[in-house]
What we know:
Elements: E1 6-10, E2 16-20, H1 21-26, H2 30-38, E3 45-47, H3 53-56, H4 65-72, E4 77-81, E5 84-90, E6 92-94, E7 101-108, E8 114-122
Antiparallel strand pairs: 1-2, 3-6, 4-5, 5-7, 7-8
Amino acid sequence: xxxxxxxxxxxxxxxxxxxxxxxxxxxxxxxxxxxxxxxxxxxxxxxxxxxxxxxxxxxxxxxxxxxxxxxxxxxxxxxxxxxxxxxxxxxxxxxxxxxxxxxxxxxxxxxxxxxxxxxxxxxx
Length: 124
């Protein structure tokens, strides 16, 4: 772990908080931040062409698939089920066999509107 990958801050209570670049850069909570830092050098992520974290932050619940496409472009993969035509769109995938990566997925409800946006670190 490099000095640039983690900043340690001591609170007045004596507790040590770890605030890493992944937390700042990707907006991760504590668990995702720790998993990302622990696997430094063991994870890599492949993103859809044109993808950006700034763009996915603009996707909101209730948006249509067309609105998502205008913001994010084509996903790497569309996962659908017979009773759930839109399913979920994956904008990232692991780029190595470790399985650790920055997961970016938009899930749709059965009416075709965005229900959830996943922006987290996947630790396999």
